[in-house]
Specification:
The protein is built from ten helices and seven strands. The chain is an alpha/beta fold and 242 residues long. It has a single domain, classed as Rossmann fold (3-Layer(aba) Sandwich). The N and C termini lie far apart (43 Å).
């Protein structure tokens, strides 16, 4: 395998996913592009992963909770995490992966998510599953980008992947076309649990590419909770809000 990888890399050298610069190793991004990505790190809200401003000077490693999470009486998620901010430096990674058949981006994104999800992995979850897309949209796009991420993350973590229990039975309007309140209304009753016995009493990790308003993840979490899931975690490659 080492010989063939060297041979292939000689003919088709690995390139940076963002700028196309030739790389010496298959690590996805060159140093310049990697350093431009706004990775989310401490200090952050331990529950939702929202980064705190640098002026707050919070103690690193402490489990600080943001004001929004403190107001939640019954939080849907035990922990939510994202690898980086969705902005001008990162959005093309997501958009190309999601809409332009750049499925090979998944390994790099999953590696970033694996690092970002260390607090989740420490909880010893039982299942990892993608946010599903409707079968008609799957036929059109040919793949569910979240399911591709789950494939890599399942291998890296050793957590069983479940692609069938959580289903999307309503072909709703794409969320990108809607605002906050409309997004929440659009997703009502869009998801269902096909086999509640598979998740009853389990710790479940939901995987998606981007968290924008959180409406999609929230609706998925609601049906999983109703079906008997014990704890629910969310991990995305990017988050659009601060």
């Amino acid at each position: 395998m080492g010989f063939w990888r060297t041979f292939i890399n000689t003919l088709l050298p690995p390139r940076c996913l963002k700028c196309g610069k030739v790389l010496s190793l298959q690590n996805g991004l060159c140093a310049d592009c990697f350093n431009k990505i706004h990775f989310i790190s401490e200090p952050m809200c331990y529950r939702c992963g929202r980064p705190f401003t640098s002026e707050m000077h919070l103690k690193s490693g402490a489990k600080h909770i943001c004001g929004s999470c403190l107001k939640e009486k019954r939080p849907l998620f035990t922990i939510r995490r994202s690898a980086f901010m969705y902005d001008d430096e990162s959005k093309n990674l997501i958009l190309d992966f999601k809409f332009k058949d750049k499925i090979f981006y998944a390994e790099t994104l999953a590696n970033m998510m694996f690092v970002a999800g260390k607090d989740i992995w420490a909880e010893n979850p039982n299942l990892i599953m993608p946010v599903p897309i409707h079968r008609l949209r799957l036929l059109k796009r040919r793949y569910n980008q979240s399911a591709v991420l789950v494939k890599y993350l399942s291998v890296k973590t050793g957590i069983a992947a479940d692609y069938e229990t959580l289903v999307r039975h309503e072909n709703t309007v794409p969320q990108v076309q809607l605002s906050g309140q409309a997004r929440r209304k659009n997703l009502q009753k869009a998801f269902a649990v096909a086999a509640p016995d598979k998740i009853k009493g389990k710790k479940v990790v939901l995987i998606d590419d981007v968290e924008t308003t959180g409406s999609t993840l929230n609706e998925c979490a609601k049906v999983l909770k109703k079906a008997g899931a014990d704890k629910i975690y969310a991990l995305t490659a990017a988050r659009a809000d601060v």
